[in-house]
Amino acid sequence: VVGMSARPESARPQALELRSLLASAGSQADAAEQAVMGQYDQYQFEVNAVSARFAWIDWMLDSLSAAAFRLYPTEGGVAACAARWARTPESAGGSGDQNGVLFLTDQRLIFEEHEGDFSVALEIPLAQIEDADGEARQGPGLDEEHLTLKLGAGAPTRQAVFALKGPTAEEWQML
Q: Which terminus of the chain has fewer CB atoms gathered within 10 Å of its CB, N or C?
């Protein structure tokens, strides 16, 4: 470099090569940083998803322990979420929306009303559920997840529609 300082035009190719090497090293460092940050972001996303699932399970267990009904000795809770039951005139107990908690156990589907005294407004053995359809719909002023259940003979109503506040209706449909 000292020898080339007397003739700057001879140092130009080496300077350009050095500038190119520095730019390449900078790009590689940026790419490595992005890869590490991407891995961290993915890890953080997965940790958040697991934490949210544990929080939901904790909420379900608290809701089951405070419910107006009791689980059968061999029954286990599967899912629960806040919901609004869009009752029709042919629904058990009349028409009009009802707010409460929708519970799914390994044996029954239960809707507990949370207006006034907590009470079981709908209880259906799983064998009476013929079909479940989950979909996202536009609700009053916001997007809602709706779960529509087609119920068989012996059920208190032929169809029940719930607007869910929590896990998606597709998850409930699969459950």
A: N
| pLDDT band at residue 30 under the 50/70/90 scheme | confident
Amino acid (1-letter code) at residue 126: L
Q: CA 14, CA 109: separation in Å to the nearest integer?
A: 76
pLDDT at 141 over 80: no
- Residues 5-35: b if buried by 16+ CB within 10 A, e if exposed: eeeeeeeeeeeeeeeeeeeeeeeeeeeeeee
Of 20, 19, 25, 134, nearest in space to 81 by CA = 134
The whole-number average pLDDT for the span 84-112 is 82
For residue 33, the number of C-alpha atoms closer than 13 Å in the C-beta half-sphere is 6
d(CA 60, CA 81): 7
Q: The tokens 């009752």 sit on which residue?
A: 87
DSSP label at residue 127? G
